[in-house]
Amino acid sequence: MVHPLASPDIHKAAKIIKQGGLVAFPTETVYGLGADATNPAAVARIFETKDRPTFDPLIVHVPGLAQAEKLAASFPEGARRLAKRFWPGPITLVVPKTSAIPDLVTAGLPSVALRVPDHPTALELLAECGQPLAAPSANRFGQVSPTTASHVKGSLGDRVDLVLDGGPCRVGVESTIVSFLSDPPLLLRPGGISTEEIEVLVGPLGKPPKDEGSPPAPGRLSDHYATKTPLYLGRDPGKGRRGFLGLAMPENPDDYERIEVIASNGDLREAAANLFAAMRRLDAGGLDAIVASRAPEEGLGRAINDRLLKASRKG
Ligand code: TXA
Ligand code: MG
């Protein structure tokens, strides 16, 4: 892909990255908090800035399949098929790593999670700085992922050296993560590319075994995506000031102080793109509870339900 000449902002961002600094940048899924993946001191700053436990490994962003293969000790045929079909795009592939990737990035795991983001700003930054970028979502640990530059500023403020503004993220939920350390490959996180589309190319995906360890095994930490306001999925506590979030209007609109309908005509792509911003608006609404209704368990609906479940009160 040919990119226009890098803008002054990209130049500045690349310089910060090369000097070991942190740059928040847009991707098609959510905003990332990026550092030079080959610089352990810079990567350490990511964990500090997010208050993220160092046993939770980071995704490494690269400009293309060729660069991904250089960081992988082996690149299974199924992974290559998915990369060729979906990169640049919202899918992350876990493969055995080489020593080019410091252990801090992968929390000591012998594998690395790789992805090529589908956003012109992210691709320009990768081209300009010439290094792979380790980048988790640009929010404090456990918070809802940011889908605009102002979400990033609200969450991390001056803890980052620069925030590149690329407008609202097109996909709105994080990448799908598929691990190729086993056969069949495992679905570690549903996301922006649907399971159905992936299985057409590599056959049925396995599910990782439930992990009860404490702390959880690296890479198996379940994110919280927590709103401060308690969120109830598919049930209504029935009292207090409540807000509603769903793909369509609720049957009992008068019960809610505030209603966020995140899709028109049930469109799952539109719903995913609107999900996190709507969760943030409801969270800021001074409510006692957020009542969310499930999306159909298909396509991007799986990723939406996964995030809502992680954000919700259990029990
Ligand atoms: O869309 C996305 O993937 C965004 C954008 C910024 O690219 N990034 C993102 O990163 O969601 P983060 O850190 O919020 O989530 C990364 C997930 C974590 O659940 C982590 O445990 C898992 O990837 N992960 C990273 N490396 C892994 C590995 N070697 N094995 C298994 N899981 C891994
Ligand atoms: Mg995250």
Explain what you see.
With 315 residues, the protein is an alpha/beta fold. It folds into 2 domains: 7-202, DHBP synthase (Alpha-Beta Complex), CATH 3.90.870.10; 231-311, 3-Layer(aba) Sandwich (Rossmann fold), CATH 3.40.50.11030. Helices cover 29% and strands 16% of the residues. The protein contains 9 helices and 13 strands. The protein has helices at residues 8-18, 40-50, 65-71, 77-86, 120-129, 149-156, 195-202, 268-283, 301-311, and strands at residues 23-25, 32-36, 59-61, 91-96, 111-115, 133-134, 162-163, 176-179, 186-189, 231-233, 242-246, 258-261, 289-292. The strands form 2 sheets. A 9-stranded mixed beta sheet has the order 7-1-2-6-3-5-4-8-9, with helices on both faces. Helix 1 crosses helix 5 (120-129). The longest helix is centred in the C-terminal third of the chain and has 16 residues, at 268-283. The termini are far apart. The structure holds threonylcarbamoyladenylate and magnesium ion. Threonylcarbamoyladenylate binds at residues 27, 29-30, 32, 56-59, 90, 92, 94, 106, 109, 111-113, 115, 117, 135-137, 174-175, 177, 188, 219, 221.
